[in-house]
Each structure stands twice: as C-alpha cells, then as structure tokens.
Design a protein that fits this description.
The chain contains 11 helices and 22 strands. The protein is of the alpha+beta class. The protein folds into 2 domains: about 300 residues, Naphthalene 1,2-dioxygenase Alpha Subunit, Chain A, domain 1; about 100 residues, Rieske [2Fe-2S] iron-sulphur domain (Rieske Iron-sulfur Protein, 3-layer Sandwich), CATH 2.102.10. The model has no long low-confidence stretch (mean pLDDT about 95). The structure holds FE2/S2 (inorganic) cluster (FES) and fe (ii) ion. FE2/S2 (inorganic) cluster binds next to loops.
Amino acid sequence: MTASNLIDNEAGTLSRDIFSSEEIFGREVKRVIAPAWSYVGHTSQVPNSGDFFASRCGVERVIVTRDPSGAINVLSNSCRHRGMPVCRYDSGNSADFTCSYHGWSYALDGALTGVPKFRELYQGKLEKEKWGLIKARVSIFHGSIWATFDDAVPAFEDYIGEDMLFYLRTLLQGPDGEDDGYEVIGGIVKWQVPCNWKFGAENFAGDHYHGYSHLSVERLSVGTSGKKSRHNFAADKTARQPMFLADPARGHTIRASVYREVPEYTVQEAASDEVNDYYRKAHEEKCRRLGDHARLLIHGGVIFPNTHFNSAGRTTIGVWLPISAARTEVWRWLFVPRNAPAVVKDTLREYYLRYAGPAGLVEQDDMENWTAAQRGTEGLMSSKYPFNYQLAMGLERRARPDEWLGRNVTITENTTEHNQRVFYAHWASRMEQQP
Ligand code: FES
Ligand SMILES: [Fe+2]
C-alpha cells in the first residue's frame, strides 16, 4: 500500500492503519524516523571531560560523551565485536568504555583503543582505526545536542529551516532572554505508553481542540499562577493572539501566542516572594534584551518527526521513541534556568512532576486518550473508516504581517488541525521515498 492511499489531503482524512499496521511501522522507521536529526540531549548533562549519558537517536541506542578535547560525540552503544552495549550506565564519568563481553575498549570519541590478545591472536593485524564505535553526525544548537546516523540528511540548519531555528533558539532562551539559558534538572524521565508514537506527535504538533479532556485538572491549581489553571501564564486571551505555525516543506510545527503588547510581569500567586523576585527581574531583563520579540510565548511543538517540546513556563524537550506500531517509549528532559536560585529550580521541578510525565495530572489525561484511541485502530473493520482531520480546513488565515514570525511557515490564528495535516502530509511524502 502506498502512503498516498493512506492519507487523503484533499478530504482531510487518514487511514487508521497508520497507527496499527506493523508493516507500515517497519517502513516508517526506515523512511521517517531514521532519516532525521533527533534531539539527543543537552550540553549541561556533560559539562566535564569524561562525562557521558545514555540516550537514543531515532531507534538507535547511543552514548553522548564529552571527550578530552571538549568535543561532544554521539556514539552507537554497540560493540563492533558482537554488538554488546559498551556502556551499561545511564550516566557518569569515565576515561573509556570497556565491553563486558570480551573486553574491547573504546575511547570517549569512539576510537577502539584496547583489544585483549591483540598481538597473540590477531597477530597485531586488526585494523583498530576501522573498528571504532559508529559515530553519528552531531550538531549543537544553543546547548541542545542533535544527531543523525544518516549521511544523506541535509545539514542541521537546513533540516530545521530558518524559521524553526528562530523558535528553537527562543525556546532555549532563559526567562531573562539569555541564549542557552537552561540546564537539565534531574535525570531523563522515561516511560512507555501502549499507543502509536504519532498520537503524541500530532497532539504536540497542534491539538488545541482537546481542552475538554483537561477540564478536571483545569479546576485545580497545578501551575504556579495560583489561578484555577494548569498554566502559569495569564488566561486572558484578549491580550494575546494564539497562533499555529507549520513548515510544509519540513513538517515542523509550533503552537505559540503573540501578545498585542509586551506584557507586564504576572505575579505567580502560588509561588514564594523569592520566586516572584527572580521571575520579575528576569522578565524585565528579557524585555530589555529581546524588545518586541518578548511578545512571543511558545506553547510547544514538534521538530519532525518525533522530537517534541513544551514551553510557556515549563520548558521540556522529549522524544517519542517508536517500539512497535502500538507501543512507544517517551523520554523527557526537564529544564530550569541555569542562573536561578535553588528555590526557583525546586518550584519548577515540582510543577513539572504535577503536570507532565507518567505521574503528571495533565499528561495522564493525554495518555489515557491515546491508549484508548489506539484500540480504536485495531479492529478488523476499522481500516475501512478513516479518521477525520477536517477541523477548520480552508479557514487558515495568515495571522499577522510581522516578518519575524517566519517567512516560510503557514500561520493560522484560529483553532485548526492545519498543523496535524501538515505533519501527516510530510509523513506521507517521507513514506514515498526510498529508504
Ligand atoms: S561483544 Fe564486545 S568485546 Fe565481544
Ligand atoms: Fe493535552
């Protein structure tokens, strides 16, 4: 079956099979997941020479290291001898990695440095320089680390595109507007969900239609605003224009708002004076640094295909890691402002844990939906009845003339499934490519 039979862009429908078919899943791993730049972590996780952490690059298991030259490497965590993971820890500091099976050892840049019985049994002939750990292409962008094992994928800047680079840079600016202003707090939060990875991806890409799901948590004050809301920012929608941005050539999507004027600092009633003092000063500094751009509030989005992020008072980046058609592992990095006092970092950490991840009240709602919806893709008759993505089709309006919001993106100001349609159109175009 071709991807064009699965997705009908004109009608705004798509086959349920793309969520449940293992045959389609096998092809999408090769054609959609592998040929991409993936977020693999953050430089704050490897500040010193010898620091490392285990991560994923698409479906590959990798080690991210900082070597003695200061360079960051992304290495396949698979011994070249028989494939054992050479690193069995989540993170740490080491001079090298020694495989626990036969004892081959590798330097922090992946070079094969030690082979037991090298002289006696390989007669010194094994060409060590050819048997190092497989290295990914790496790009560092304002502290975020990206990698791909695909040589045919364009350079990182071209893959992301100039508009999304602007949003990604903004995402990684601290509350005071400083570039690379965040650090990772704690370890990487990891959990599995029994659903297809695209349920999460399309939700982050543009779903502002499911507020209904979160009505119960909206009645609580999980945020720091002190208001009955899950968010920290002011709920007043007359002050800001929600926007949905999508890059049709690349499949990336963003949800954001633009305030009509640079907003005043909003006191977080549920937080301490110390926390408010930090955020008030940071807000003033951000307005000074960014000027008119301080009107932008990023809510979240997806860097195609499976890197996703949340912002607007809770900066997190994650990846949907496909395991099978009906199972996904989620890895989520939680960020706090690097220069903030400990009380601010603690306040944010607690907010993240109330909000997101397997214990978070908001994400539990989402996961319940995706898991139950997955079952709706698995019946024998289900493939005859496509899903509906027609919300606000044809009603896309270019929201604002502001050039800085992007030149190559479509911008829509009404609630829509336009971002999801762009995501799936790009998915279909990737599925038509030869691996
Ligand atoms: S599998 Fe690593 S040394 Fe044999
Ligand atoms: Fe949600």
